[in-house]
Amino acid sequence: MVKHFDAFNYAYLLKSKTISCSTCKDRQTYDEWSVFIEKQDMIVWRRPHSSGNFEYKVYGSYHDVSGEDFLNVQIDTKYRKEWDNTAIQLDIVEADPNTESNSDIIYWEMQWPKFFTNRDYVFNRRFTVDCDKKIIVIISQSTTHPSYPVQKDKYRVTDYFSAMVVKPYTELDKPGIEFVLTYFDNPGVNIPNSINSWVAMRAMPDFLTRLREATKHYKPFCERTGNSCICTLEDRSGERKRKKKKCDRKPKLVGNVANDEVFGLNAGELEKAFENIKENVEHKLDDIKDDIKKVLSKIKEDLKENYNIEDKNKKIKRGTNDNSRDDYSDAENNENEEHHKKKTD
């Protein structure tokens, strides 16, 4: 994954090498990459692949989304079903028990146009965040899993690869990012290049546009549904203490079953509920401690006040009896002292 950290240098090189010729006005080709689509915030290159299809590379720059949200939108399978109407099924088949690896096996069924069979994928998705270099890398690679064998009514795409590299303008949790996406998949159907190009030119920008819009609405979605963000990146400024060394990735497992539900809540919702309960209990305990302190303080003041009144009464009584201790018998003095002691206790 580390080798993809250099993706931006190559993308910048492509931009400089494939610009229009100043004299002939034709596009240039570099390392077999040629410009396929160019928009205000996006450039797409493609080059021939040994399979007879094309491999694609995308450079994008979005000023209105953060790297943190951009990562979350791509790894949050629940949210993906909300904004991507081509995702018929999207499940986490298995998660690596070592949560620091950020590695999952995903099953994805993608809706294709009429007269075509839907495509489905089983792939390993993994991501890493280097907060010092301010780089996010998300890699997906086709694989197999016994829980999701090939089905007759779908075409299984077995040759699929995607690498997304993201870096911020300033900070990973602040708006403004650049990204480089390199991907290839073999859809398993032979169609004329002209039709393939037409589909790619329409589908690719449309998907990235929807991805961008979905990212801008991710936090409101989490607040609305009670869904906790999968990955929260700490502010790296020196003024705030760094509480976590890595991405705080919410566990996807309850027991041994991926995406299990307990009492109608999934793992993320359960964890958030328990965190809320813990926080409420801690607040209640603090309130109880404060109440106890107030009560003890009140008791202490009352005792002190009663002691002063009783002592004053004793002096007054002694004064009315010619200030003589002889007016009190030893038995009476002992009784008063014992009574005072019990009251103070």
UniProtKB/TrEMBL annotation:
<keyword id="KW-0597">Phosphoprotein</keyword>
<feature type="domain" description="START">
    <location>
        <begin position="33"/>
        <end position="220"/>
    </location>
</feature>
<dbReference type="Pfam" id="PF01852">
    <property type="entry name" value="START"/>
</dbReference>
<dbReference type="InterPro" id="IPR041949">
    <property type="entry name" value="START_STARD7"/>
</dbReference>
<keyword id="KW-0813">Transport</keyword>
<feature type="coiled-coil region">
    <location>
        <begin position="271"/>
        <end position="305"/>
    </location>
</feature>
<keyword id="KW-0175">Coiled coil</keyword>
<keyword id="KW-0007">Acetylation</keyword>
<keyword id="KW-0963">Cytoplasm</keyword>
<keyword id="KW-0446">Lipid-binding</keyword>
<comment type="subunit">
    <text>Interacts with ACOT13/THEM2.</text>
</comment>
<dbReference type="InterPro" id="IPR051213">
    <property type="entry name" value="START_lipid_transfer"/>
</dbReference>
<keyword id="KW-0445">Lipid transport</keyword>
<protein>
    <recommendedName>
        <fullName>Phosphatidylcholine transfer protein</fullName>
    </recommendedName>
</protein>
<dbReference type="GO" id="GO:0006869">
    <property type="term" value="P:lipid transport"/>
</dbReference>
<dbReference type="GO" id="GO:0005829">
    <property type="term" value="C:cytosol"/>
</dbReference>
<feature type="compositionally biased region" description="Basic and acidic residues">
    <location>
        <begin position="307"/>
        <end position="328"/>
    </location>
</feature>
<feature type="region of interest" description="Disordered">
    <location>
        <begin position="307"/>
        <end position="345"/>
    </location>
</feature>
<dbReference type="InterPro" id="IPR002913">
    <property type="entry name" value="START_lipid-bd_dom"/>
</dbReference>
<dbReference type="InterPro" id="IPR023393">
    <property type="entry name" value="START-like_dom_sf"/>
</dbReference>
<dbReference type="GO" id="GO:0008289">
    <property type="term" value="F:lipid binding"/>
</dbReference>
